[in-house]
Specification:
Elements (H helix, E strand, L loop, with lengths): L2 H17 L3 H20 L11 H7 L7 H7 L2 H13 L35
Helix pairs in contact: 1-2, 1-3
Length: about 120
């Protein structure tokens, strides 16, 4: 489970409760149905990414729907740019190779269901 999705899911839930909007319940039903049906039909575990609850949040925050795509794109420009730089300027093989980081992740792994959120000031 994408930990960012868990944060947005909780924010969406709180905002829906405050505003009385149905979007959290609808999105949660889509999430639960998708997880269940992907497991039943294909035998795979699939969980939402950060984008699933974004639309409901934007709507409840009264951000015009026409801005959803630009917000989606802007949030990814840095990553897209880094990929272009890697592909264009790195001393890569003649054909594009799959890049792997040289660092080893040392954070806490919580499995496919994810971790519970821990505030930054409580982290070690």
């Amino acid at each position: 489970y994408d930990p960012r999705a868990q944060v947005l899911k909780e924010l969406s839930k709180k905002l829906a409760k405050k505003t009385g909007a149905p979007w959290f319940d609808i999105t949660q039903a889509v999430e639960e149905t998708t997880i269940r049906e992907m497991k039943r039909q294909k035998g795979i575990d699939i969980y939402p990414n950060v984008d699933l609850y974004s639309a409901s949040l934007y709507y409840m925050l009264k951000i015009p729907p026409d801005l959803n795509t630009p917000i989606f794109a802007i949030s990814r420009v840095a990553g897209w740019t880094a990929h272009v730089i890697e592909e264009k300027f790195a001393q890569a093989a003649p054909k594009t190779a799959l890049y792997r980081p040289k660092a080893v992740y040392v954070g806490k792994y919580c499995g496919p269901q994810g971790c519970t959120y821990e505030p930054i000031d409580l982290r070690k």
